[in-house]
Amino acid sequence: MFSLNKNPVGIFDSGVGGLTVFDEVKKALPNESVFYLGDTARVPYGSKSVDVVKHYSLANVNLLMALGVKAVVVACNTASAAALSFLQERFPHLNIIGVIEPVVEYLLTRPELKRIGIIGTNTTILSGAYQKALIRGNKDLDISAKACPLFVHLVEEGLFKGEITEKAIEMYLSGMKKNPPDALVLGCTHYPMLRNVISDFLGGKVEILDTAFYTAKKLAGILSENHMLNCGSIENDRFFVTDDPNSFKATAELFLGYKVGNVFHI
Q1: E strands, 190-237, where?
Q2: Whether the Cβ atoms of residue 75 and residue 210 lie closer than 8 Å to each other
Q3: How far apart, in Å, do the first and last CA atoms of the chain sit?
Q4: Fold match, 9-99+213-265 / 101-211
Q5: CATH number assigned to the domain with residue range 101-211, chosen from the 4 options 2.30.30.50, 3.40.50.1860, 3.65.10.10, 1.10.599.10
Q6: Active site members
Q7: Exposure winner among 175, 194, 205, 223, fewest CB in 10 A?
Q8: Considering the entire predicted model, what is its pTM?
């Protein structure tokens, strides 16, 4: 039996990319209400320094805690790479998970995947967070990593396909097309919106891994193990943004494929 815990789950991202995590969390945990915080006034985080990302991330967790969340998902690869351990130390009694370790843990269960590609923002790639975590688990892996900073802007503008998007993919991933990995980690929560065009560009032969799916699965396990699953009525999901809520709402509906309500400027 699970104890009743109706408090919402908190998710934060620099903008709309974390909605891919929101979507997977809702699929994995349909009985949980979710409060999503998009720091849209300061997007993207990927071009910011580590100290600045830590500062923004701390403010985000403080805000979500003030809203009464029972756990926090850092739905941003940049913030996960730069600030996750910092946040976990600052909030030792709050379950906080990022989007890097869950997919790394999965990859380490697949020894047949020997060549791993990683794409992400400048900060994520330069941090080496994925590379270090993978090598700790399997030093024999062949890892290639590529920063693709324009992808965030394309997704934020709703350019999920088309000539501009295809040219950006070709610019960044032509090397991987010539020498494809066994699996490619989409190391930014915006990138799943480009999954199909990326897969097509790579010839459909590369296993594309969306960190959001594995993050939602890990969150479900943590809530279950800690008897924190909600078994009562469900509160409406809420979306909080630091910039124009109307712009966020329009893009969120593109991401999620349905009408979005309860969007608040904060």
Answers
A1: 207-210
A2: no
A3: 37
A4: yes
A5: 3.40.50.1860
A6: 76, 188
A7: 205
A8: 0.92
